[in-house]
Specification:
- It is a single chain.
- With 210 residues, the chain is of the alpha/beta class.
- It is 40% helix and 13% strand.
- Helix 2 links the parallel strand 1 and strand 2.
- Helix 2 crosses helix 8.
- The relative contact order is 0.15.
Amino acid sequence: MIDAKKRGWVVGITGASGSVYGVRLIEVLLSEGYPVHLVVSNAGWRVLGEELGWNAARREQALQDKFGGLPGKLTYHAIADIGATIASGSYQVEGMVIVPCSMGTLSAVASGASDNLMTRAADVMLKEGRPLVLVPRETPLHAIHLENMLKLARLGVKMIPAMPAFYFHPETIDDLVDFQVGKILDSLRIEHRLFTRWDGGQAAHKREKP
């Protein structure tokens, strides 16, 4: 059996607000030695620029500046590259997370519209029975949003909306981001210490960052 740290994970970042969640997830996975296959929509690149100040005109350099030097290997795939490795079910990865996930991308995945690499990779996860996690970031939600989420949940897709908790007394935005990323890692069964777990009101452990 191939080790999970050789297969790695696919991460998609869309144009929904909350690109920091995707960036932090990638950072943690690479820090733990996992290979990461990254797909960013054109709108996702715009949001990375708007929210985090990334230079979308120099994409490869922006990724190197942020993730260069971390143990895991990052492979960036252009959204239009439908011939990329992750477009095929024969290419072995552990699963995929789309974070944040726009309602447009969620709708495309729910309808099976594989019109770009991100939605095709998600479709591969569904057809191959691999873990697929979506992190919707939208409010309020109307009936179509909810119906699409229900449809995917019934297919086994894990829905982890961007809903940070406060029982662990977060002090910074980074604490809230780490809680959300920690919940994603829990669903992937990857151990972490990004937030203090609930233990009947007693701190289970102190928060540690890789």
